[in-house]
């Protein structure tokens, strides 16, 4: 049989192409682009702060998207029209398949299989009188099917082919259809088809890909210009010990604020008058610095806007206020890039690629700047100013002779009457806003555990070992401290807002934690203790008194007393004999039980191995989960002076305060909703002695919520290196002792437990 290829003449199979193509585009477009309207929660509306800065911020966010409503309506309209077309095409395809699959001439004529010619003609005449288009009951489509069925059965050859092959034409050539309409290859339409191909594949597609590629190579993964990252590397390498104002100066020099690198920046004629006036209000701005690009006009303007933001100086809402919102909105992402840049410089300094090592204060100053930007507050100001309606006048009552309230945590722990008395000048509605904001602020339980994973003794730290510090963060709202006397007994609120446990940690810094195991492993471990410990103690308590009374000699002076008192003890002799008989029986039973327990020692050891393997599996699984994709949603921050909505993020790291060095890279926690577990790893010092390191937790959104805990590592001397490896020594003889073979297998098994480098 021959083969031939042909385009779709009837246009039926073309619907398959359109249906698949439209579904391929419409389904993901509906999922990603359908406007998702957040459900308005009445409880969330009640928790919103109604202070003037918050109200102004919400109004500004609404004005930022004036076309949001019409845009969402247009998107919905396009998607709905697409689905209507999709359902229409699906209906056409279903009808096409039904018509093709249900053509049966015998069924159309209403005659049985094998009917005679007279019966076929009679049935055709009867139905044609009904279905003919000229009749009132006529149906052209059905009449054509009737005619085709009659022709297929009146021709003897066509009838044989139909009964044998299911086709009146017989076994025809195999045809492969192309699901495209035939007008595509017609000569009069070739110019339009080629033009469409050229427009899509030669102009539009390369242009879109080129624009995407040109934009992507200019930015980092956090959408920060690569030129800005190079700028950070240069200046932090030039001045490793950077103070807060130096960090602000470097931040303001970011190329995101330059019109030449960012087309979103607006330059106005009014800047020539307003910016110099603003600079006069800001002391210690450093506008006379001659370093490039720190001395450029865009950098000085951005620096002035940042200083005005931190000082909460009101600006012109039509000019500088708009610029301030844009600059401040970019700052948290740029600060995170600064932290990464300083961390990379520290790594390069450790590898001797750069001469100077940035101290720990530089990277911490970068982290301190983030909550300052978010809250619009200098770091030397009181953290109580983060609450609404609180100003310098109210702070006088917090620092009276009776009490010294310096942190938000201390204020939250006061009784309700005392908290209200400190803010007598506020109305009830204003005080309610203060308590709403304070109650939603974070109260983080900061726990650490030090161990050496994948080691036989995880609590012993040897020189050069990989130390893993497990940081567990449990986040609650500050409202748990309102009138909670138990919280004061278990925790201590420091002046800087840190939370310290009342329990003292051990000398080696390893905090004891309970490792949860499955129920079946708990039963195995508990059964082992009852079998092994109780019978031994029982036997020792019974045997010792017996041997003492029988074998110890008696003095002569006591014999008379024993004889005179023998009558008194005769009554108890039977009881003692019964007790000794019971003890003998218990000794026999305990001996048999010990034999059984000694026979089960291998099984108990295997249970211990199962427990250890389960703990290792849980730790490895926890490390794998920490490497998975992280969410960016945690808790909304109260930040009325920050122009956008902000989520709570945290940094945690380990440092050495004595040498002012960073031991681990700062881990950015972006999904602390209720609980988060982070594993920080570093190499133990190579000199055996007692070391003191600090585990730090810093907030990028709130001032006064930083915490730190000290860990003490008693570093032991590392064991001597193994120079001989019995498992690598192969004897000359072909036969080996089975004991040696088992030893080699056990040695190979221990190699699998070595930590991965």
UniProtKB/TrEMBL annotation:
Coiled coil: none annotated. Its main location: endoplasmic reticulum. Gene3D superfamilies: 5' to 3' exonuclease, C-terminal subdomain (1.10.150.20), C2 domain (2.60.40.150), DnaJ domain (1.10.287.110), Sec63 N-terminal domain-like domain (1.10.3380.10). It is a multi-pass membrane protein. Residues 493-620, 722-757 are annotated as: Disordered. It is found in: Endoplasmic reticulum membrane. The chain crosses the membrane at residues 14-34, 73-91, 191-214. Residues 104-166 form the J domain. Residues 576-589, 731-740, 748-757 have a biased composition (Acidic residues). Keywords: Chaperone, Endoplasmic reticulum, Membrane, Protein transport, Transmembrane, Transmembrane helix, Transport. InterPro entries: C2_domain_sf (IPR035892), DnaJ_domain (IPR001623), Ig_E-set (IPR014756), J_dom_sf (IPR036869), Sec63-dom (IPR004179). GO terms for cellular component: Sec62/Sec63 complex. GO terms for biological process: post-translational protein targeting to endoplasmic reticulum membrane; SRP-dependent cotranslational protein targeting to membrane. Residues 522-535 have a biased composition (Basic residues). It comes from the Eukaryota. Residues 547-563, 590-607 have a biased composition (Basic and acidic residues). Pfam families: DnaJ, Sec63. GO terms for molecular function: protein transmembrane transporter activity; RNA binding. This is J domain-containing protein. It comes from Phyllotreta striolata.
